[in-house]
Design goal:
The structure is a single chain. By secondary structure, the protein is an alpha+beta fold. The protein folds into 2 domains: 87 residues, GMP Synthetase, Chain A, domain 3 (2-Layer Sandwich), CATH 3.30.300; 46 residues, no CATH class. The protein has 6 helices and 3 strands. A 3-stranded mixed sheet has the order 1-2-3, covered by helices on one side. This is DNA polymerase III subunit gamma/tau.
Amino acid sequence: MSAPPPPMSAPPPAMNADDLATWRAVITAVRGQRPALASVLEHAAVLELKPTRVVLGYEANSFLSGQATEPPARELLARVLHAHFGGPAELVFETITRGSAGPSLAQVETAERKARVEAAKRAVADHPLVAAAIELLGAELKDVRLAPDFAEG
């Protein structure tokens, strides 16, 4: 008899909706002061997000980790967290391995954009007028093009 296959590890949990909204608000506040730092922080895995403690994860030796952990960046983030939560929050950076933590805000927003674009394309393809044109003309829908800024809003 062969041994059973090893159990598959569960995918890392995504941030819950409240944490996602909180982290987006923090990133927006940082973006108002240092847009480049906000872009760096969007790529962090948020491992813990509480009013008293925030833990962010980056891969070892990551360029982004180096940018996020520089003293001026840490100080700005600490000030934004203090303003957001109404008190000081311990700020911790941890080293993670790829795929060991939930998705970053950048990954979440990319997936949301992709879903919006796909839903819009599906809505066009399934529209009764498009279906009628295909039927009447014997046509084929090859591509649906959306305005370049559609996915952003």
